[in-house]
Amino acid sequence: MGCRVRTEKSDLLRVVAVEGEALVPDRRGRLPGRGAYLHPDLRCLDLAERRRAFPRALRLTGPLDASALRQWLGEQEAAVPGSGTAATGQEEGDIT
Ligand SMILES: [Zn+2]
């Protein structure tokens, strides 16, 4: 939805608006209401916000608060193994 890269739906994060204003991740796809599909990626969220894709996808007109979603995505990226500083340490270990 943000970057428009085609991806299997199972690889996308479903996002719903709670009470019509707060965007939250719906990892199990079980929250009620319309869902917007996004790559679980902060860049994709940025693009979606810039395009005002959320109001369009969710059929909402009011301002949407993406702070909870942004925080969740940040935590996911920090937890991914093989990215960030942890991976650099491992590569150094492999060389010796
Ligand atoms: Zn994307």
Structure description:
The chain has 96 residues and is an alpha+beta fold. It has one domain: Hypothetical Cytosolic Protein, Chain: A (2-Layer Sandwich). Helices cover 41% and strands 15% of the residues. The chain contains four helices and three strands; from the N terminus they run E-E-E-H-H-H-H. The protein has helices spanning 42-50, 53-58, 67-79, 85-95, and strands at residues 13-18, 22-26, 36-38. The longest helix is centred in the last third of the chain and has 13 residues, at 67-79. It is globular and about 40 Å long. Bound molecules: zinc ion (ZN).
Structural class: alpha+beta
Question: In CATH terms, what is the architecture?
Answer: 2-Layer Sandwich
What is the third-level CATH name, the topology? Hypothetical Cytosolic Protein, Chain: A
At the first level of CATH, what is the class?
Alpha Beta
* Ligands and ions found: zinc ion
Classify the beta-strand content into a percent band: 5-15%
Mean pLDDT: 86
Quantity of strands, as a count: 3
Oligomer: single chain
Q: In DSSP terms, counting alpha (H) and pi (I) runs of 4 or more, how many helices?
A: 4
Determine the N-to-C terminus distance. 44 Å
Give the number of domains: 1
Order of SSEs: EEEHHHH
Biggest β-sheet description: 3 strands, antiparallel
Reading side by side through the largest sheet, how are the strands ordered? 2-1-3
